Amino acid sequence: MQSNSEKYYEISLQAKEGAGFPNNYVSLNEDQRYFVDSLLEKSFEKDENYDIIIDEVKLAIGDLHDTRASLVKVLSNLSGDN
Fold first, then answer.
1. Measuring CA to CA, which residue among 8, 20, 14 is closest to residue 63?
2. How many other C-beta atoms can be found within 10 angstroms of the C-beta atom of residue 16?
3. CB atoms within 10 A of CB 41
4. pLDDT score, position 49
5. Each residue's pLDDT tens digit, 38-56
6. How many Å apart are CA 78 and CA 34, to the nearest integer?
7. What is the pLDDT of residues 9-44, one digit of tens each?
8. Which of 13, 27, 61, 73 fits 22 for a cystine, CB–CB 3.0-4.6 Å?
């Protein structure tokens, strides 16, 4: 059975970067590691959950993009670059 760090390395670099996650498992902060470990341990136990996992990850990535866009807008407004 693969460890979570081994499973994490199988995730594409593009997906990790898109979610704002580091390429290396050891570089994850505590919250990111908890999220990744929970996702990998619960979701990859059963193959039939794979499509659900993909959908949930896509939603999470979309939420992260929305949050990033909001933060960029706030920072732009604060810096006077409207």
1. 20
2. 18
3. 11
4. 65
5. 888 775 556 556 777 788 8
6. 32
7. 988 999 998 889 999 999 999 999 998 998 887 755
8. 27
Give the C-alpha distances (Å, rounded to integers) separating 79 from 30, 69, 72, 74, 82.
31, 15, 10, 9, 8
In angstroms, the CA 53 to CA 57 distance is 6
Name the nearest CA neighbour of 16 among 47, 44, 57, 53.
Answer: 57
**For residues 4 and 26, what is the distance between their CA atoms, to the nearest angstrom?**
11
Please give the structure tokens belonging to residue 45: 């136990």
In whole angstroms, give the CA distance from residue 33 to residue 52: 20
